């Protein structure tokens, strides 16, 4: 969850992170800002399929053709049925939590030696701030 590296571990739909990644990996990623590798996620059922880079276009075309043969209403019904089942598994408050956590995250009062995406973006612009964020989390606070 890259946003955690900019505003802290408070943004997004945390329920889905816990549900899909498990509580241990979700907490690790949220508290460290670390980027999960495909190896971290492969055995967790996060990906529908993994294919070599050379086969991506062919597999994407095959899947698109397969989906295109499905009735549009059926796809909409299936997506909503999945969403409803997922929400009924204790995630009904996820939208409300996202709003509250976003409010908390955008009102952070970070110390001078902590990275503050909102403050730094207002002072140096978006591109410079993304560069600074990458260096801060790769090299540590002394890289600033």
When the domains are counted, the total is: 1
CATH architecture: Alpha-Beta Complex
Instruction: Give the termini distance in whole angstroms.
Output: 22 Å
Q: Outline the biggest β-sheet.
A: none
User: Assembly type of the shown chains?
Assistant: single chain
Count of DSSP H/I helices: 9
Low-confidence stretches: none
Sequence of secondary-structure elements? HHHHHHHHH
Instruction: Tell me the overall shape.
Output: extended
The secondary structure category is: mainly alpha
CATH domain class: Alpha Beta
CATH topology: 2-enoyl-CoA Hydratase, Chain A, domain 1
Roughly how much helix do the residues carry, as a percent range? 55-70%
Strand content: under 5%
Rg from Cα: 19 Å
In round numbers, the mean pLDDT is 76
Number of distinct beta strands:
0
CATH superfamily label:
2-enoyl-CoA Hydratase, Chain A, domain 1
Provide structural commentary.
This protein has 144 residues and is mostly helical. It has a single domain, classed as 2-enoyl-CoA Hydratase, Chain A, domain 1. The protein contains 9 helices and no strands. Helix 2 crosses helix 3 and helix 8 crosses helix 9. The longest helix has 17 residues. The chain is extended. The model has no long low-confidence stretch (mean pLDDT 76).
């Amino acid at each position: 969850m890259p946003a955690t590296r900019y505003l802290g571990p408070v943004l997004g739909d945390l329920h889905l992170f816990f549900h899909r990644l498990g509580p241990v990996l979700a907490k690790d990623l949220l508290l460290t800002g670390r980027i999960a590798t495909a190896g971290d996620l492969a055995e967790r059922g996060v990906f529908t399929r993994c294919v070599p880079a050379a086969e991506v276009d062919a597999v994407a075309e095959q899947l698109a053709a397969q989906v295109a043969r499905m009735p549009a209403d059926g796809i909409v019904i299936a997506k909503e049925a999945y969403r409803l089942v997922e929400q009924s598994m204790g995630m009904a408050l996820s939208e409300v939590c996202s709003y509250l956590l976003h409010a908390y995250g955008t009102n952070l009062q970070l110390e001078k030696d902590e990275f503050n995406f909102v403050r730094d973006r207002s002072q140096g612009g978006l591109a410079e701030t993304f560069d600074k964020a990458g260096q801060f989390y790769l090299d540590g606070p002394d890289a600033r």
